[in-house]
Amino acid sequence: MENRGNSRINRSEGNRSRPVFRPEPDEMVFGVQSVMETLKSGQEIDRLLMDKGFSHPEIQQLAYERRVTIQRVPVEKLNRLTRKNHQGVICFISAINYVKLSNVIADVYEKGITPFFLLLDRITDVRNFGAIARTAECAGVQTIVIPGRGSAMINADAMKTSSGALNHIAVCREYDLVGTINYLKDSGIQVVACTEKSFRDIYTADLSGPIAIVMGSEEDGISPELLKLVDTHIRIPMFGEVGSLNVSVATGIVLYEVVRQRSV
Questions:
Q1: How far apart are CA 86 and CA 70, in angstroms?
Q2: Which residues of 54-72 are buried (b: 16+ CB within 10 A; e: fewer)?
Q3: What does the radius of gyration of the chain's CA atoms come to, in whole angstroms?
Q4: Which of 196, 200, 212, 222 is the most buried (most CB within 10 A)?
């Protein structure tokens, strides 16, 4: 949805005279000043696109401070997103608020719950992501971890496909998945990658303890550097002529195998 001038203008508590620019969730904001104010507002930004030939030190510094990745794209892509004067920069407001993985882990252990996490690597299809979130929430997954770059946008389509599940499950956005996997392992959580390259079926693996399941995209799978780091690999046995499953279906099979093992 384009920013059509209907964004909220609130006034800060400390300075009643200065309006605070607060776009609506899932809104597209364009133009140098609007993007700068959005970065300053503290709202979650899902994606920030900048023309390859454009540079703006203040926006780049604000993005660095907010840990927002700038994606350099051809100006033609920006022109396809809006016909208005975007001035070389567009950002999208996230439909959710991200949480810190460290907080989720601490909360789960404090409550005496066995960790059950899902890490998604390079899954960019919005509807697949929404379907995965729906299944994960139903299966009792406590958090979904996504990379800071190269992941599906969490927008209205994702919210709709998840049937509202994204309102009830924590989502962590981590910019270093290598460090994230090491952190999970150091926290006593077994990290298991589901990949067709494995020789170990999911039905022969012990998935009943504290666990983080890693799923990759249908096209590229899980990144090689992540495959090297995980504790073990598993695969879903295939008996037909088609060599792969839709990633949301595959994720559902793996998650509910964890549920089955824990219920025995």
A1: 15
A2: eebeebeebbeebebbbee
A3: 20
A4: 212
Sorted by sequence, the CB contacts under 8 Å of residue 59 that are 6+ apart come out as 32, 35, 36, 39, 50, 70, 89
Of the chain, the percentage scoring pLDDT greater than 90 comes to 68
**Tokens linked to 190:** 């077994």
Which amino acid is it at 43?
Answer: Q
Cross-strand partners of 233: 193
Q: Which two tokens stand for residue 197?
A: 């390259």
Which pLDDT tens digit goes with each residue over 40-56? 988 888 889 999 999 99
pTM of the model as a whole: 0.82
Which residue from 38, 15, 40 is spatially nearest to 28, judged by alpha carbons?
A: 38
Quick check: helix, strand or coil at residue 88?
Answer: coil
Share of the chain above pLDDT 70, in %: 90
Helix/strand/coil percent split, the chain, to 5: 35, 25, 40
Residue 34 main-chain phi, psi, to 5 deg: -65, -40
Assign residue 152 a region: left if phi > 0, alpha if psi is -120 to 50, beta otherwise?
Answer: beta
- Dig out the tokens for 35 from the structure: 């993007």
Token digits for 144? 């979904």
Residue in this structure with the two tokens 């300053």, named with its chain if needed: 40
- Relative orientation angle of helices 57-66 and 32-41, to the nearest 10 degrees: 20
What is the C-alpha to C-alpha distance for residues 180 and 172, in angstroms, rounded to an integer? 10
Q: Which residue type does 2 have?
A: E
Non-local (6+) Cβ contacts of 164 within 8 A are: none
pLDDT at 15 over 80: no
Cα 121 to chain centroid, rounded? 9
H helix runs in 67-176, sequence order:
75-81, 101-110, 126-139, 156-161
| C-beta separation of 228 from 195 below 8 A | no
pLDDT above 70 for 63: yes
